[in-house]
Fold this sequence. Notes:
This protein is an all-alpha fold and 198 residues long.
Amino acid sequence: MKPPWNSLEVxxxxxxxxxxxxxxxxxxxLTRIAKKFEHLQWRNxxxxxxxxxIYDDLALDLNDLLCYFTFVGCWKDxxxxxVVALKRRVDKKIYLAxxxxxxxxxxxxxxxxxxxxAPFQGWGLDARLRxxxxxRRSAAGMAWQASWDSCFVDExxxxxxxxxxxxxxxxxxxxxxxxxxxxxxxPSASGKLPSNIV
Length: 198
């Protein structure tokens, strides 16, 4: 004769049935967490890749501005109208990139641009260059066009090249921080400004 079912036997049977169900539920939960983590990791990787692409594109233009306003590197290769056109390109790239970077990136880029240019000169007028025209005029010689003189601010509104260099360094530090590459590398000795530019 079979023993009758008692409550202990029922509990054993229920527990034995619930263990596989609990394991299955836990497995589904852990799988979902793993997929969310994987998606988050993928998204972050794509963001870093996009930021690096923006850096590759924007850093060259920012460096050209640094060279022009600190009289180093390629500064003699650029004409004042080309520098104004460069400002437009940089502004467009900064505003397009802003949603993908921190607020510090946008602020530091705008601070750098503000040291290089005096915008809002009047309706339909280009921003003026916050640098002195004298040395540029003498370096260009016969290639200098008289119309370029109007591209520059008065001497009292010109930016100090050291301030321009410091603002550029700040942009690069924020750039590398946002890309998650760590702190920016200190500038080398070649990053010194010419002593006779002021």
